[in-house]
Specification:
The chain is α/β, with parallel strands linked by helices. It has 23 helices and 21 strands. A six-stranded parallel sheet has the order 8-5-9-10-4-11, with helices on both faces. A five-stranded parallel sheet has the order 12-21-20-13-19, with helices on both faces. The longest helix has 20 residues. This is Helix-hairpin-helix domain-containing protein. It holds the Pfam family UvrD_C_2.
Length: 653
């Protein structure tokens, strides 16, 4: 136990709180945790497992009669507590009246004073916005434009509110550039050249989307299920545009496994080997053999470099692949020509995707075109980092499936940017008939869960009468049925569960999978070398949602991510077992096979089910123990509402 943890533990002991909370409080409060907690016991509420009643009890033990109900420290902590609960549900802000009502329900006699206390001690920030009408006023028709309503006031956790403000400011900076990379005609011709060079074709809508991204500074490119191949083809077209215009390109995905899956699909389109590893597979659209292999070990960014070095987890900078605009050397990606004069145009260097954490670690970027795939899974804070990494004049492209659930982190970035009408929206749409997996996902997006024809067993429905039976079926599918029947190894099967607790929650499912796949005593804080792990926090080279395998423990945990990069995880609290993860944790990842499990008495929504299904690229098994609640939830719970300010920030900017 470190000295800092011991100090926090001593404070907890004096107030009658369990010492087991010390490591998480240290992570939440920072280096001064012991002193801060000693002075303000209500800071216990920074942990989600601590209730208001428990925090009040500890405050009375520590402060005695000084622990008054109207203590400003208590009022501020209760307000921040409500804001944290809202942030965990994805909200970036809470409207002032709603916040006051929620604080009042905690027994606070003067909610307005509580809000003021939170703003005064910096645990909350106050944001103001004018609600402008959606309809544009036409001055040619005469009359007087409608005046805006009174200013609305919102409260946010300081870090959450500032992240969304920063995102809006960075997007407005990019939007103000407004210089096209290519004109419409040239971009269209370049897309045709990319098709001819690559031996593929894109649909008319995809062609228009690619041209839009070349013309406009910020673009949201929407897509549907089964469009994995068309997305890869669109990226190859954008790659050629960036090369011919000498601006360079960087392509990112939220997680290492999503980047590896994208690289494999790009390699399939190009007809090259994605690297060592798995054999060919079929993609979700059912459009032919798909190389499911990950990127070459130690090289998620392409080429040689530090990516494979233990603890790095960072591929070489995107500009090394993409060229650096004017400074790009001959033959580099981003340069339309290579070799000696007279050699003629050369194909650009291979396009590779990188994890978003690795991309932003290389900020500022020296490229003129930045693309983020699986953008629905990225919250306001990470999106702000990406936008800030883009240089002036760069084009930012968000590739997003609007039917997916919003991000696990606060915000609904892609939807808000599209709704603001300050950026351009276009659609990537393949011309191929959807495969069974895409057909099921599309039906879910429309509110149904039908049976679909799946001759290749791309979709399997597995009924279960109880949570216990569902758990048994899941472990059986992962360890035996899917590897044996489909040739997809257990390492390429991801369990996606609707909840953490219960017999069919992630905790129990991980215990069952570990017993079969990597039994051991849990020698390292409950983990053993070889365990599949989920990273639940950010760090050098990794981000929440990354999965990998624990390879070594030498004071820090060494985790090997998809693509071969190894990262060091200093905080043990950042690790979870990763054979089974929640839908929120899976969002932003892609795997060859997914086992989606829905136990009894768990709220089900359409975006949740859709997101779980679309994490799979080849096969999905749906383990259903809901006794009809799955169909009801998909039909009736169509949207997950969130309170955000990004639309207003962009419109008012």
């Amino acid at each position: 136990m470190s000295e800092a943890v011991e100090q926090v533990n001593a404070v907890l002991d004096r107030m009658g709180a369990p010492g087991a909370l010390a490591p998480r409080l240290l992570a939440a409060l920072g280096p001064g945790a012991a002193a801060d907690l000693d002075a303000n016991p209500w800071l216990l509420l920074r942990l989600p497992q601590v209730t208001v009643e428990q925090a009040d009890f500890c405050a009375r033990r520590r402060l005695g009669d000084a622990a008054r109900p109207d203590d400003p420290r208590r009022l501020a902590a209760l307000t921040a507590h409500v804001l944290r609960l809202a942030a965990r549900r994805g909200n970036t802000v809470v409207e002032e009246k709603r916040l006051a009502a929620a604080v009042g329900k905690l027994g606070v006699a003067a909610p307005a004073a509580a809000l003021e206390a939170a703003a005064a001690d910096g645990s909350a920030v106050v944001l103001e916005s004018t609600d402008e009408p959606d309809d544009d006023f036409d001055f040619e028709e005469g009359g007087v434009p409608e005046l805006p309503e009174d200013t609305d006031r919102y409260y946010a956790l300081a870090d959450v509110g500032r992240a969304e403000q920063r995102l809006g400011e960075e997007l407005l900076r990019l939007i103000s550039g407004n210089d096209p990379i290519m004109d419409t005609a040239t971009a269209g011709e370049t897309v045709e050249a990319a098709e001819e060079r690559g031996g593929f074709s894109v649909s008319d809508r995809t062609r228009e989307a690619v041209v839009t991204a070349a013309l406009r500074p910020v673009t949201v490119l929407s897509h549907g299920p089964g469009d994995t191949g068309e997305i890869a083809r669109a990226l190859l077209c954008l790659h050629t545009i960036a090369a011919d215009s000498r601006v360079g390109i960087a392509v990112a995905a939220p997680t290492a496994q999503a980047a590896a899956a994208l690289d494999a699909e790009i390699a399939r389109i190009r007809g090259t080997d994605a690297g060592p590893g798995d054999g060919p597979a079929r993609d979700a659209s059912g459009e032919g053999d798909r190389a499911a292999a990950p990127a070459p070990a130690g090289d998620p960014g392409g080429g040689s470099g530090p990516a494979g070095e233990e603890g790095s987890g960072t591929p070489r900078a995107p500009e090394e692949d993409a060229g650096a605009g004017e400074d790009a050397g001959d033959g580099e990606q981003g340069s339309p020509e290579g070799g000696d004069a007279g050699d003629g145009p050369a194909a650009p260097a291979p396009l590779r995707a990188v994890p978003l954490a690795a991309l932003t670690a290389g900020a500022p970027l020296a490229v003129g075109l930045v693309v983020l795939c699986e953008a629905m899974s990225v919250g306001a804070a990470r999106a702000a980092e990406l936008a800030a990494a883009c240089p002036d004049g760069a084009h930012l492209v968000l590739v997003a499936d609007p039917h997916q659930a919003p991000s696990a982190a606060p915000g609904r970035v892609a939807l808000d940017i599209a709704a603001s009408r300050t950026a351009h929206v276009a659609e990537i749409a393949g011309a191929e008939a959807p495969g069974p997996l895409a057909e099921l996902a599309a039906a879910v997006a429309s509110g149904g869960v039908p049976e679909v024809e799946a001759p290749g067993r791309e979709v399997v429905r597995v009924p279960a009468s109880s949570a216990e039976e569902a758990a048994h079926r899941v472990v059986q599918l992962v360890t035996d049925s899917i590897p044996r029947a489909l040739g997809i190894g257990a390492e390429d099967v991801q369990v996606v569960a609707a909840r953490e607790d219960g017999p069919a929650g992630t905790r129990s499912l991980n215990a069952g999978c570990k017993e079969r796949l990597n039994p051991g005593p849990g020698a390292h804080g409950g983990f053993d070398v070889g365990d599949r792990v989920l990273l639940a926090a950010s760090g050098p080279g990794f981000a929440p949602g990354d999965t990998g395998y624990l390879r070594e423990v030498d004071g820090e945990a060494v985790v090997e991510l998809s693509g071969g990069a190894r990262v060091r995880v200093a905080d043990p609290a950042a690790l979870r077992h990763g054979w089974a993860v929640t839908v929120a944790a899976a969002h932003g990842g892609l795997w060859p096979a997914v086992v989606a499990v829905f136990p009894p008495e768990v709220p089900v929504s359409r975006p949740q089910v859709y997101t779980a299904l679309t994490r799979a690229t080849r096969h999905v098994s749906v383990v259903d123990a809901t006794a009809g609640a799955l169909e009801t939830g998909v039909r009736d719970n169509a949207a997950l509402e969130r309170s955000t300010l990004l639309v207003r920030i962009l419109r008012e900017g």
